[in-house]
Amino acid sequence: FQTIYFGLIFAEQCRRYPTIEMFKEIGDMLTPEMYYMANHIINILDLEKMEKFNVFIAREGFHSPLDRAKERYSKVQGVLNKVTPYEFDSVPEFINKIHLIYVPEMGFLLVIPFWAENLTNADLLLPSLQLKFCSNRVAYYKSWRCSMLDDLYGDPLTDIINEESKIIHSLWNYIRMHIHCVISLINAIIDLDCVFALGMLAREQNYVKPELVDENVLEISEGRHPILSCYLQSYIPNDTSLASMPGQNLNIIHGPVASGKSLYLKQVALIAYMVHIGSFVPASRVKIGLLSHIEVRIQTYESIISRSSSLLSEFRAMGAVTLKTYCRSLIILDEIGRCASEVDSIAMLASMINYIMNKDSNSAMVLVSTRLDIVEDCLPQGGRIPY
């Protein structure tokens, strides 16, 4: 209910700025049905108290049966304090402590702690009192005064819950008939919130506007990881240059373990993704063509449910990637064959690279990382692969 109400208020504010496209779009979504819903919500719900106590609270004066039940419930504590001394005078003298309580759906009860050890059911039977139940060495009784209070006040808390449930159900049925308008408005506000978040991040982290071109290229100057660069002052920017043409569509990054290869690959993939969601990017310059796919094989997850070995899982992952080497694709491969022997790893890497190099001139752009030193000897000769 609060989402609908405050969403309507936000849309009203957006109407004040019709020259801003996204604000105008949100403002134009306001319909008479949404105003009717907001009017119902304001008249029925006490939003200030709901925000304070985080429970459903109907506005006073809206529903008479609910108001009467709340009035009866507000008097319960005072009645308990007044009647308790009279109940204490009517119990046997060996009982030195009692309480009078109200329990929803059970009414008013007299609470008497056990007055001795090893009491039997017969010992718990007291004159003029009806034993209801026992729990944790405490007996609960119904006296004639409790029955009188039940008749006089009824079960106010249960009545409150029932009446509030009726109100919620009725209000929700009304809102549900026009919920499509609300969903469209909320989705538009979410989009605007994302744009604000991206804009604030770009300003705080000095992001730049990427240059979108028709060519299938990816050129990044002084690129940074969008997350780690915020926390590591010693982060070193990196460049990337790829194009969908022989000799420029595949780069191999070689280095020892923990040298930053995976981080670099993730950085390139994230920058490419951020461009496609309309964000500025963490770099000094980015030139990129629109991509149809970003395929990433950073880690192969193992599971006993798959009923396959680590090597077979690796083969399946690589097979899925090779099926998507389209012209407008960016493929990121990290440590191919890390779960296999060195010979098998080299074979997998070399076969994958040969497959990509033998594609036509409009093949995908590929970044591959490896820790293997002798992989260069297994690659096609002729200087076509940056290494």
UniProtKB/TrEMBL annotation:
<dbReference type="GO" id="GO:0005524">
    <property type="term" value="F:ATP binding"/>
</dbReference>
<feature type="domain" description="DNA mismatch repair proteins mutS family">
    <location>
        <begin position="248"/>
        <end position="384"/>
    </location>
</feature>
<comment type="similarity">
    <text>Belongs to the DNA mismatch repair MutS family.</text>
</comment>
<dbReference type="InterPro" id="IPR045076">
    <property type="entry name" value="MutS"/>
</dbReference>
<dbReference type="GO" id="GO:0006298">
    <property type="term" value="P:mismatch repair"/>
</dbReference>
<dbReference type="GO" id="GO:0140664">
    <property type="term" value="F:ATP-dependent DNA damage sensor activity"/>
</dbReference>
<keyword id="KW-0238">DNA-binding</keyword>
<keyword id="KW-0547">Nucleotide-binding</keyword>
<dbReference type="GO" id="GO:0005634">
    <property type="term" value="C:nucleus"/>
</dbReference>
<protein>
    <submittedName>
        <fullName>DNA_MISMATCH_REPAIR_2 domain-containing protein</fullName>
    </submittedName>
</protein>
<dbReference type="InterPro" id="IPR036187">
    <property type="entry name" value="DNA_mismatch_repair_MutS_sf"/>
</dbReference>
<dbReference type="GO" id="GO:0030983">
    <property type="term" value="F:mismatched DNA binding"/>
</dbReference>
<dbReference type="Pfam" id="PF00488">
    <property type="entry name" value="MutS_V"/>
</dbReference>
<dbReference type="InterPro" id="IPR027417">
    <property type="entry name" value="P-loop_NTPase"/>
</dbReference>
<dbReference type="InterPro" id="IPR000432">
    <property type="entry name" value="DNA_mismatch_repair_MutS_C"/>
</dbReference>
<keyword id="KW-0067">ATP-binding</keyword>
<dbReference type="GO" id="GO:0051026">
    <property type="term" value="P:chiasma assembly"/>
</dbReference>
